[in-house]
């Protein structure tokens, strides 16, 4: 797939633009071919808002949204530094004591929308009401809807002590805590030493929480959530895009061009309440940016997530005792990512290689023999996302993603079972851009083809979304 | 106070006539003279408390008052600058310097008038330091310190502008630099009188400026060697 | 053929000459920072993204957020700037503007725009210069000559202390540099907004830098637009460095000057005459 982008003709900028257009064209074709069906409508309603544009900061400092965001919620280099400094401008006026008492660092964000979800190769009764006629069919649903809501608070408790508290709800108003942490910034007066404790987003170079996609099939990175189909019980319960709970040591150079992070995390994929077993995950990231003159700032990074998951528990009277996991087996996800600017054109590539231990990949408890022939599950994922900023108030987006199993846990399965190709594209228009509130008219289409249906492992299941909504925060 | 006005008017008159001598020969030139008065109630000038600067306070037997509206007998208005604002071909800057003193923590004169590029000399005669901060917008704005015993500051202004001047150390000190293109100007004294001499025949616009009451203009035509009388009446506001 | 070619060569040479002569950069449309050249049209895009809500679409400091901010954003139409390497009343150099933008201003809402690429910042400088006609009619001042800093010694500090007294810095900055001088409360800037003098006892960064050299430049060029005047006519360079050394002792920072001062004070404190009005022990 990457080959498809090496058009080569003309300037680098020209070829990326062409591939951006091709991406957009591909997804239109994909929509036509698939008939635009989706099964992911349930997944969408759980796709609670990606957070992180906070007019409260704009209100506090009098800056435009565009000062920190390429197009909110995605951060630009200046916003990255502001965030790295613990939401401080470092001008001795950051602490709450310098603010008007009526200033409260709170932002609400929600997106009322209309969307259409469609999925092919679903088990549908040819004659409604007759279970004997079940066969592959396409299911399409559409209508007006609400997204989840974020009630985001973030800022400083004191000079160099910052915080985030993010209660987030799905579209029924059922809340959970998406993030909650305290961060001690610039310890020993050094921007290389910052300590964060609580529940937070992993320091991914390409952030899923602050990206520009909202639809059911486009509103998440496949690479950040994929698991092999053989892990039917979800033993490897993990996604790079999920907020995790733990502690992080991080640091950055003065202009945040060089950054690192080391995190120790619970093995619950961010879940609270101590169902964890006695092992911890580790996440390491490093990135470096260079000043490319008129082109902008070019950033490249590498990451590694090493985790362990229990495969069975101690029991009491036969019932598992939560938190007492045994039979820990490991998995890892490593890769590289980049954020490249060519003037108003931005490219975000990512590559990921993942490996799940055979026990995890086959959902086999550690005190039981592996199925014959079981192997580690390995896969590679990649995506290439492009943005074109016509102005700070208008951005076009497009993305192509792929996941390719390189080794199935069960050798009897087709090698491409579970493989994914995903196409997304959209536009965000911000009719107003002031410091007090934000509004974006967001329109997006996305389509995902997954290899393997309930009917045949060779089937390609298309799920697609069409979405248009008013994404606002204040 | 009175004595200083007389000194100013005399000095300006001298300079004015010297300038006029550069133009048409006096015998062939006309003049404009008149009086500036006000109607209504002008604001009361407040006494200035110089307790924070004892070296200045002791120079004044009775506290001096603010100078934004200076009045005299017969409703006369002082410190009104009357000048030719149109019809005058302009003249090159004289080489005599205009002198501006900081004395007793006051600017003397309160309003200094000079021509574009004319030298300006600023003296600190006090036993305290001052800073000179002309709040120019068209000309460059600068701010210089003048400690006790420092030599005079020499400067010129390259563009016409009415520049408020202040001292940041002594917040009651307010003055003006009026930078004009014309050599025909006068500053009224407490008697409100002014006299512009050495005007060749022509059509002129005469402008009177008072820092608080604004400007007024009148058109005057000089045909020969006559002296035209032009009076200005400002409407005084209490604030 | 030959003659035509040579005529053609002459013509094109002349055209090139004329074109490059005519292509002289329009002052105010370009900025030069080191080897970098900034262009105003590109700077306009940078300005719209980052600057406009405080500094305003016309660059006059009346952006929509300006009313909520103190100190007020800079009014570029006046071309009066605090942080310069050039004498009071003259335009700053392009580098001065570039550095001010990159450094930000402590205790204000002006951030350090360091994460922007150098080109972006250079372009922004070029665009800022289009807001005032002074950039086309006046040349930037000549940066003041700053001689190398002599060693900090107790004699230098004591001379500096004498200058602090003589130049009457204490009338605004206070005898101990706490920003509580007798005139401090009445200070206003060139827009009649109240403005406090620097309080050395906070130890915070200066408006225009952090080093001794920056401090030298502050009082030898003055902060235009503020009550802080230039002392260039009143202090010789050696005296200026003495004053710098003394001013460092007023800050709660661990500087060589503060260490020397503390050590000397331990045995000589009673020898000091207090700073302040004449007759207060002077």
Quick rundown:
The complex is a heterotrimer of chains A (474), B (239) and C (282). Chain A is mainly β and 474 residues long.
Main sheet of chain C?
A: 2 strands, antiparallel
Distance between the termini of chain C: 92 Å
Strand content of chain A: over 45%
CATH architectural grouping of the largest domain in chain C: Orthogonal Bundle
Poorly predicted segments of chain A:
1-15, 26-50
Task: Give the tags.
heterotrimer, A: 474 residues, mainly beta, 16-stranded antiparallel β-barrel, two-stranded antiparallel sheet, 6 helices, 11% helix, B: 239 residues, five-stranded mixed sheet, four-stranded mixed sheet
Task: Report on this structure.
- The complex is a heterotrimer of chains A (474), B (239) and C (282).
- Chain A is mainly β.
- Chain A is built from six helices and 22 strands.
- Chain A is globular and about 65 Å long.
- In chain B, 10% of the residues lie in helices and 43% in strands.
- The longest helix of chain B is centred in the first third of the chain and has 21 residues.
- With 282 residues, chain C is an all-alpha fold.
- Chain C is globular and about 80 Å long.
- Chains in contact: A-C, B-C.
- Chains B and C meet through strand 9 and strand 10 of B and loops of C.
